[in-house]
Write a structure and sequence with these properties.
Blueprint lengths: L4 E4 L4 H13 L4 E4 L11 H8 L5 E3 L11 H10 L3 H13 L7 H14 L4 H10 L7 H13 L3 H11 L6 H11 L3 H13 L7 H13 L3 H13 L7 H13 L3 H13 L7 H13 L3 H9 L4
Parallel strand pairs: 1-2, 2-3
């Protein structure tokens, strides 16, 4: 049987991550990195281990045939022992999630602590463990301190996570944190800032600016941003009312497993707004939303009249 793969090489981990996800989604049988573990193949253990968890098809170089995700933990550990804080956090994350090793959240913490100590930008992973009570009793104050440390070190997504943790009882502080996150390129930060501005929380109410922020988040691939922008187009709030555009955005969100987007799209099909009315499709979308955990989807499905 003939199979088709792709070969990649770069020192830009984010660009590679996007490429690997796309190649995995397209079903390529093999995704290789470089020509093997040579000196010129980036400084490799952290990058290769990080990419390995994105796909079960990952390999090191065209001549090596083992599934790299099974070796990722050992590579992360080796990278950490060599002084790479990213590798330390990744080794902890794989233990926390049971990837390549038995799941052990408590054992993950020392690895994450080491990475956070060496590079404050990486403290967000440890913060999440404390926030969720994984391997340690839940401690919101400790989580907030760690998120803040990472945020102040320039990690945009930590600013966004801190804002979420502080809502709704911290005045305008979450909004200011979302401003920082969005300015730093975090799509969730832009979406969260849009939420606050749309509702006039911590900033003047401005649906048009909220729509612009949702657009930024959506274009960055965040399904929540697409769903929120679709809702504004469906309502004609802050943007021109455009049912066809709303349908397109809801579909994009739903396809990205955003349950509320599926419920919104179901409403459009049930009402025939921006699309030909189809109750069967609407019911399927409500079911998908409900199965995805969206209570509105469950209610809409229950409310559909019998045929």
């Amino acid at each position: 049987m003939i199979t088709i793969g792709v070969q990649t090489w770069s020192a830009d981990a984010r660009a590679l991550a996007r490429y690997w996800r796309a190649a995995d989604a397209l079903g390529y049988a093999r995704i290789t990195y470089g020509d093997g573990l040579f000196g010129f193949t980036h400084d490799g253990f952290t990058l290769l281990g990080a990419l390995a968890v994105l796909t079960g098809r990952a390999r090191i170089g065209p001549a090596v045939t083992y599934a790299f995700d099974r070796a990722a933990v050992a590579l992360y550990e080796k990278g950490c022992e060599a002084g790479d804080p990213h590798a330390c956090v990744a080794a902890g994350a794989m233990r926390a999630d049971g990837l390549g090793v038995a799941k052990d959240e408590a054992a993950a913490l020392p690895w994450m602590e080491k990475g956070c100590t060496w590079d404050a930008r990486l403290c967000g992973a440890l913060a999440l463990m404390h926030e969720a009570g994984r391997g340690v009793p839940a401690d919101a104050a400790r989580a907030a301190a760690l998120y803040r440390r990472a945020c102040d070190a320039g990690e945009a997504d930590a600013c966004s996570a801190l804002g979420v943790l502080l809502e709704p009882s911290a005045g305008d502080q979450p909004t200011r944190l979302y401003e920082r996150a969005c300015a730093g390129g975090d799509a969730s930060g832009c979406h969260n800032l849009g939420r606050m501005i749309e509702a006039g929380r911590g900033a003047d109410e401005d649906p048009a600016r909220a729509a612009s922020l949702y657009e930024t988040a959506c274009r960055s691939g965040l399904a929540d941003g697409c769903e929120a922008l679709g809702r504004l187009h469906a309502l004609g709030r802050g943007v021109a009312k455009d049912d066809a555009r709303a349908v397109s955005l809801f579909r994009r969100a739903c396809d990205a497993r955003n349950a509320r987007g599926c419920a919104d799209l179901g409403l459009m099909y049930e009402s025939g707004a921006g699309v030909s009315a189809d109750r069967d499709v609407a019911a399927q979308l409500y079911r998908r939303a409900c199965d995805g955990g969206d209570s509105a989807g469950c209610s809409l499905l229950d409310a559909m009249p019998p045929r």
